[in-house]
Write a structure and sequence with these properties.
With 395 residues, this protein is an alpha/beta fold. Helices cover 43% and strands 19% of the residues. Strands 6-7-8-9-10-11-12-13 form an 8-stranded mixed barrel, surrounded by 5 helices. The protein is rod-shaped, with a radius of gyration of 37 Å.
């Protein structure tokens, strides 16, 4: 190709990638046309503007990968174009060209972040190298900015989550639901249940999920156990309390400290392990449970009968008390299969001398079937809903 309008001979290159878009700003029509031919031959998409106002309007309306502009163009000069386009896209590379280089313009170009300052007539190899580098830089910058934006958005979401969690934590209190002996017509223990006055994060399950996401399970566990200990300290005649223990609490050294608030009441505490599907996350689970027993705590698991995980936790933890899965309790009076399953589990517990609590009892019919099967320890709305210390059961 013959050199025209300040261009020297160069071989075009094609890289097969989507065409980057270049904005060429020059009031020399011959130079601009030559620019279009050369850049398109190299695989670029090209748009042109003959003055600064038109260039800025195009840059604001469309996303370009590179701006290639002469310093001396009408209306706005190249340096002003540089500043204007950077207001919209601070990462866009701007390459300045001039036929009359000056120290001041070069200095300002550098200060304002021009990628390159080329002297006409342009060297094709130099221009090709500059444009290729500019496109790569812009793509990397945009990718990093997207990542940064996602990171910043993620941080904002985390901050909002932390705020909700802190407010839920500040409003936390402990509800209690009685566990009754039907034959003796008395309360044998209470289950302590996490509650909060903060309406936007009031579900215990959501609080637990939030604590896990924020890596705040130790703080949440210590808070709940401390509140239970405070209630027990103020009510020394409590028969006993079941305290829900997330499996991740088993990794918290505070749980095993003799100075922890709940340790003072260990002989009257059943630690009820939840989220049993995650037991494998605690590799030395047996040793930790044995340690808790040495401190005086007893171990309970809930939802016996909830498939493999419930039976597996029964075998793995060898609990002192088990709770029947409430899905087996619901409608047991009208479902023979459930009666057979509960009878089998009750017989297993009797053989192992492990007390069995039927949780989630809501109707007299359910209670009566369970009594016929041989169950005696009950918990559920039929007797009392969870409430402030201490609901009086209907027995």
């Amino acid at each position: 190709m013959e050199a025209k309008a300040g261009f020297a001979q160069a071989s075009p290159s094609q890289d097969g990638k989507p065409r980057p878009l270049v904005l060429v700003v020059d009031d020399d029509e011959t130079f601009a046309r030559s620019c279009v031919r050369v850049l398109e031959n190299w695989g670029y998409g090209v748009k042109t503007a003959s003055d600064g106002d038109a260039a800025v309007a195009l840059a604001r309306a469309q996303q370009f990968d590179v701006v290639l502009t002469d310093i001396n163009v009408p209306n706005l000069n190249g340096l002003e174009i540089l500043r204007a386009v950077r207001e919209r896209d601070r990462d866009i590379p701007v390459v300045l060209m001039t036929g009359g280089p000056g120290l001041d313009s070069a200095r300002v170009a550098v200060e304002w972040g021009a990628l390159s300052y080329l002297i006409k007539p342009l060297s094709m190899s130099q221009l090709q190298d500059v444009l290729s580098r500019a496109v790569q830089m812009h793509r990397v910058a945009r990718r990093e900015r997207r990542i940064l934006h996602c990171t910043e958005e993620h941080e904002r979401e985390l901050e909002a989550m932390r705020l909700r969690f802190d407010r839920a934590l500040a409003g936390m209190w402990t509800a209690f639901q009685p566990i009754v002996s039907w034959s003796n017509k008395n309360v044998v223990a209470y289950e302590a249940l996490m509650r909060t006055t903060y309406a936007e994060l009031c579900s215990p399950l959501e609080i637990l999920k939030t604590a896990e996401a924020l890596d705040q399970m130790p703080m949440l566990g210590r808070k709940t156990r401390g509140q239970v200990a405070e209630v027990m300290r103020n009510h020394p005649n409590l028969p006993g309390v079941f305290v829900n223990l997330h499996v991740l609490d088993l990794a918290d050294d505070d749980l095993y400290s003799t100075h922890a608030p709940l340790s003072e009441f260990a002989p009257r505490i059943h630690l009820e392990i939840t989220e049993r599907m995650a037991l494998e996350r605690i590799p030395d689970i047996r040793e930790r449970v044995a340690h808790l027993r040495r401190l005086g705590f007893r171990i309970a698991v809930d939802d016996l009968g909830e498939g493999y995980s419930g039976l597996n936790s029964f075998a793995q933890l060898e609990p002192d008390v088990v709770k029947l899965d409430m899905s087996l309790i619901r409608g047991i009076d009208t479902t023979p299969t459930k009666r057979k399953m509960v009878h089998a589990l009750a017989s297993l517990c009797l053989e192992l001398k492990t007390p069995l609590v039927a949780e989630g009892v809501e109707t007299e019919a359910e209670r009566d079937i369970l009594v016929d099967i041989g169950a005696d320890l009950f918990q559920g709305y039929l007797f009392a809903k969870p409430g402030a210390p201490f609901p009086v059961p209907n027995i």
